[in-house]
From TrEMBL:
Pfam families: GerE. Residues 152-216 form the HTH luxR-type domain. It comes from the Bacteria. GO terms for molecular function: DNA binding. PROSITE patterns: HTH_LUXR_2 (PS50043). This is Transcriptional regulator, LuxR family. One of its GO terms (biological process) is regulation of DNA-templated transcription. Keywords: DNA-binding, Transcription, Transcription regulation.
């Protein structure tokens, strides 16, 4: 983060990490510098579900090239309404951030990190800088994947004992019907448990939930 700020003359940056791509936006203890420190409470309370870089067009860019920027996304067509609202009302109207860029990094255990870069100047990062950041994404990911893995306990910490039992059985590959038999529950009750667990952890599917549980 410090090297990026020095080399590119950046002031407002953040580093979010999570067990899966979608968990990244719920990181409650990110590294933040500059205005992102002040932006964080409102972001976590209201906007993280609508983050520009969680939109399908941005996700495709991040997975394929490691970098996505607001300027590139806008030049290729309309953003989803939720992402457009995030840009207009949160980034621009509230914080005067005309430029936004994300760098995706691969972490140990299949985890993901996003470095967020923001600036009041729309032209802060041009094509040469974005090309350099794409190279950095590949190089830093190669280094980061070899780091000692951390335990993502926070996403599961708030679950009840019964919910944690359900999570473990989902991770073991059991169906709802099998979980119902194992825990002496009605299958409808298991469905409700799974839905509430997905909402609480920020996972988008049973697969993501299983990966999260297995990484601990």
């Amino acid at each position: 983060m410090e090297a990026l700020c020095r080399h590119f003359g950046l002031r407002h940056v953040s580093f979010f990490a999570g067990a899966t791509f979608h968990n990244v936006f719920g990181d409650h203890a990110p590294l933040v510098e500059g205005a992102t420190k002040k932006m964080l409470p409102e972001y976590l309370e209201r906007w993280n579900r609508f983050d520009l870089f969680g939109s399908p067009p941005a996700m495709r860019q991040l997975v394929s090239s490691g970098v996505s920027s607001l300027s590139e996304l806008q030049s290729r067509g309309n953003l989803p309404a939720s992402a457009e609202a995030y840009v207009r009302h949160f980034l621009v109207s509230t914080w005067r951030m005309e430029s936004a860029t994300a760098i995706r990094l691969e972490l140990p255990g299949g985890h993901t990190a996003l470095v967020g870069i923001f600036d009041q100047r729309a032209d802060k990062l041009g094509p040469p800088e974005l090309a350099t950041m794409r190279l950095l994404s590949r190089q830093l990911s190669a280094i980061a994947r070899r780091l000692p893995p951390t335990r993502p306990k926070a996403a599961l910490a708030g679950l009840s004992e019964r919910q944690r039992q359900v999570v473990q059985l989902v991770a073991d590959g059991l169906s709802n019907a099998d979980i119902a038999v194992a825990l002496s529950l009605a299958e409808d009750s298991v469905k409700k448990y799974v839905s509430r667990i997905l909402a609480a952890t920020g996972c988008q599917s049973r697969m993501e939930l299983a990966l999260l549980a297995r990484s601990i």
